[in-house]
Amino acid sequence: MRSSIPALWIALFFVTVTVANGRCATRDEIVLSAAQKEVGRYHRLELAIDVGREYANPFDPCEVEVNILLTGPDGRSLLVPAFWGQDYERRELRQGDRTVVWCYPKGAGLWRARIAPMQTGTHTARAQLRDRHGEITSPPVTFECVASESRGFLRAGREDPRFFEFTEGQPFFAIGQNLAFIGESQYVTLSRAEEIFGKLAANGVNFLRIWTCCEDWAMAIEARKSAWTRSWTRESPIVPMPGGDGRCVRVEGHSGMSIAVSPCHNVALRPGTKYVLSGRMKMDGPEAVRIQASGNEWRISAGSGGWQTFEREFSTGASDYWLGRPTFRLMGDGIAWLDGLSLKEAAGGVELLWEADVNREIRGYYNPLDCFLLDQIVESAERNGIYLMLCVMTRDLYMESLSEVDSPAYRQAIVDAKEFMRYAVARWGYSTSVAAWEYFNEIDPHKPTDKFYAEVGRYLEQIGIYGHLRTTSTWHPSARDCRHPQIDIAQEHHYMRPDDDDFKDEVEAILRQRRFLREHAPNKPVLIGEFGLATQKWGRSEYMQQDPEGIHFRHCLWASALSGVSGTAMFWWWELLDQQGVYRHYKPLAEFLSDMHPAGLQPTTAKTSEPRLRIVGQQGRDRAYLWLANRQATWWNLVVEKREPDAIDSAAIAIAGLKPGRYNVLWWDTQEGAPVHRETAGVNEGRLELTVPPFTRDIACKITPAAFAE
Questions:
Q1: CB of 547 closer than 8 Å to CB of 509
Q2: Burial class (CB in 10 A: 0-12, 13-18, 19+), 680
Q3: Which among 226, 454, 636, 671 is placed 20 to 30 Å from 418, CA to CA?
Q4: pLDDT tens, 678-707?
Q5: Cα 224 from Cα 210, distance rounded (Å)
Q6: pLDDT of 627
Q7: Which CATH superfamily hosts domain 155-221+363-599?
């Protein structure tokens, strides 16, 4: 059982308590209420749970666990985890030429459950609470689930588990990229992310990889978000508490030495509101410490040398929306220690400076504002028809703990990961737009993670009623992870670097990754989760600036889409892709694949006698999808050497393995996204023979049934 969050944070939590004989009395009932009485199938229904109790750490299921017992129209009951969370009011504010999202706590935190019913008919829900006092069940709430157009959740195909499909059986082919870092200090802010979602969706993108594990530089659900230091700083003002347990903040040096309060998230304030800044301080040497905050200045005298509390009130003006960076400055040489820094509305409310708590747990505390931001991201994905692979757990909080199987640290990592995934399932698992949970980004492949993935995976099978897919990634290819039975999507990351022998040939680079993935995961979905041009030290390649047309990007999309993996290669350098405006390259591919049913497809048998012609494709018994590329039209030749290849104007291809009959043949312009030529052709002596229309760089071909011979 995890230790409690310090008393400073207790005020964060939603409570309804009565006081009797000087002691807190807990209410002996909980109340469940539904936001609506009718909900579409696979759509979100939010349930509010008034627990009437106070908990030091509502994130710890050992301290308090709240679930929903959901009984469907078939009489079967399912247990759905509930969660505690903080709501925020959101506004868009302009700061110079930049739109900034202002998020301010709305009310106090509360318990909720989010459900996406999977059966039409009448459902009954009851909330169940378990804590040290025992177990309580709420009176029932009923609601009706009605038919909807939703296709449900993504999963591995029942007929062909190498590719994705929806719960309702429709095929899904992932077309997309990374949009990993979303945060106030990043190129992609929340507002820009929502704009990019719309642009990508308009061009046929349906899949994105998002990080919720960025530590303190962007969105991170479970990470040290500190107002005093950053993960990349070498020196920290956080020190052991003098004469006591725990830690505090120290400022030391000559008169005038100062320390600034700099949360990772800009602290929002409400205009025209009174606030109280409080804490306690101990000094050795200085005569005082000067505090400057929000245009105000206060002096805290040294006092007797022990710890002394302070509390200062200030009011915001009509246009004051941000706290800024409060500073604590020494008046005289010496040391000052600071503990328990707090900022709240004078009238009461939630803690605004939660990042200032240096004794807060890292694993097991879920950053409230980042959770709200992910709510917004998931809702934007739902509006735009985009499915998210969420890279959820912060690798560096777990990796060292996973060094030795059956060690106490390893066992605790499993416990903490289960608790984290329980929270993720409870808060975001309802959404059909959450395609997959990715445990880690690029963890060390040499760590003995098999047991970790097995135990966490089996736990998800118990609590995740929607069956979200699971994946992970390593910093070098991991055949072991690809084969792991509790890893549903095999994933690999690859960057084309100057010393690699495939650096100048993007198509061969893609095909190598496909061969590796299909060798080690022949019967599950596989993805190239990161891809791009890089320097030898893994930075962004300078050659990308020389390719504003996005030639290498477009070629890799087509090569990966028709190579036999379950989605396009997911490019990493999202900022440059956005700046160069290359999203247009998705649309021709998306339209070409719009009627593709990948189940049962195998690598094409198509052959040609034209040595310059490279064919990448998939085919079944009655259809084929091909991408034909000029071997001379590599990104290196076109971008760096600036050599346009000669046209291929007299090539022929022959395809074996198609069932007898006649076929519609569509030749497709891969840049413009339009037909080049249409024809009908028949299988002759077991082969379909076609003449390729003249082209210079690449062309695509779709072959579908017209009529079959009896």
A1: no
A2: exposed
A3: 226
A4: 999 999 999 999 999 999 999 999 999 997
A5: 19
A6: 98
A7: Glycosidases (3.20.20.80)
